[in-house]
Amino acid sequence: MPRKARRAQLLDSALEVFVAQGYHAAAMDDIAERAGVSKPVLYQHFPGKLELYLALLEQSADRIIDATREALASTQDNKMRVLATMQVFYDYVANAQGAFRLVFESDLTNEPLVRAQVDRVTAVCAEEVTKVIHEDTGLSDEASRLLAVSLVGVAQFSARYWLDSGGDLDQQAAAQLVASLAWRGISGFPLTDEQG
Questions:
Q1: How far is CA 81 from the centre of its chain?
Q2: CA dihedral 174, 179, 185, 186 (to 10 degrees)
Q3: Nearest alpha carbon to residue 34 among 44, 24, 21
Q4: Confidence (pTM)
Q5: Cβ neighbour number for residue 55 with a 10 Å cutoff
Q6: What SS3 state is found at 125?
Q7: In the 8-state DSSP scheme, what is residue 26?
Q8: How far apart are alpha carbons 56 and 96 in whole angstroms?
Q9: Which domains does the chain possess?
Q10: What pLDDT sits at residue 71?
Q11: Along the 196 residues of the chain, how does pLDDT read in single tens digits?
Q12: What is the pLDDT of residue 102?
């Protein structure tokens, strides 16, 4: 198997093990067995469990960051941007692979390299939202960033709550409901060209 394909296979297997068992309970033996490879093959790609976890965490963080950027660029209609961005987080937590648990519910957040990746998701997503808010409202960078962090926080926490609660709302309805709440708040700030 080509090196790139093998690495992808190992990451997929590691995701299953880490999501099911958490970092501390997961063993490299379990990951190698799940991937159908020997431990030496696993160690050829990743020198240790932390490096494997960090590679997986970085990949998972990149996915949600890229999806957030795509959602923001998908339309010029800000109401639709709010919904699209909210949907990113709901799609992410609803993914059957459970990668969001690595990013939002890691049992290794005291490890500085892990904490940095987890914080990167919030920081980069908020920075992308900050740009849109600043451009559209003319608010200061600081004010725009505070609003952006708040919106990203609402998306993250409400999506995780929705998933864990197992309530009656389907994913689309839940994302729409929270997007409506967020839109009612953020739409109160007038567009720059309407302020003249």
A1: 17
A2: 160
A3: 21
A4: 0.85
A5: 16
A6: helix
A7: -
A8: 16
A9: 1-47 (1.10.10.60), 59-189 (1.10.357.10)
A10: 96
A11: 888 999 999 999 999 999 888 888 999 999 999 999 999 999 999 999 999 999 998 998 899 999 999 999 999 999 999 999 999 999 998 886 777 877 777 778 788 998 898 899 999 999 999 999 999 898 999 999 999 999 999 999 999 999 888 878 999 999 999 999 999 988 888 776 544 3
A12: 77
CA 187 to chain centre: 24
Report residue 122 as tokens. 């919030």
Please give the Cα distance from 21 to 7 (Å, whole number).
21
DSSP 117-129: HHHHHHHHHHHHH
Q: How many residues does the chain have?
A: 196
**Residues 178, 90: Cα–Cα separation, whole Å:** 10
- What CA–CA distance (Å, rounded) separates 23 from 46? 15
CB atoms within 10 A of CB 39: 13
For 189, phi then psi, to 5°, come to: -95, 115
Exposure class string for 141-171: b at 16+ Cβ within 10 A, else e: eeebbebbbebbebbbebbbebbeeeeeeee
Is residue 193 within 8 A of residue 159, CB to CB? The reply is no
Q: Quick one: how many helices (H) and strands (E) in the chain?
A: 10, 0
> Distance between CA atoms of 51 and 144, rounded to whole angstroms?
35
- Which DSSP symbol is given to 74? S
